[in-house]
Design goal:
Layout: H1 3-10, H2 14-29, H3 34-38, H4 43-58, H5 65-78, H6 82-94, H7 99-129, H8 139-145
Amino acid sequence: MELKKIEKILQKEPEDAAEELLKEVEKAYGEIPYILNFMKQKPELLVTKILYDNSIIREFKRLDAKTIELISIGVSAALKCPHCLKMHIRVAQRLGVTRDEIFDAILIAGTLSNAAVLAEGTRAMDSETGEECSVCVTPHEKDIKD
């Protein structure tokens, strides 16, 4: 959304600004995410959230909309947020993202989530048992310890 359009919207009463921004969100996504609909009750919070999200997600010109949705799918899957995941899958499908591409994003999320669980778990185990896997320490971690 262009800055001039945002300025015009922000000159309205908070409730009216919130309604207009929700219409813009619906244009971008094809639907209004649940949390934004819920936040309508707090227009000051809703307006700032939408503006922040817009500046991060929708105003990137370096990433195309399909890539942004695939990232959103991966993150939603990794964070285990079924509501966000389903919504981003719907948005991705509307953008022409294929089932295989969506599955790839989920597989990547699963692989990274698995690695994060293993890394966190084994580090906690080493820390609490007093044993450390000497070959597991990365050069960066070794520098930190020295």
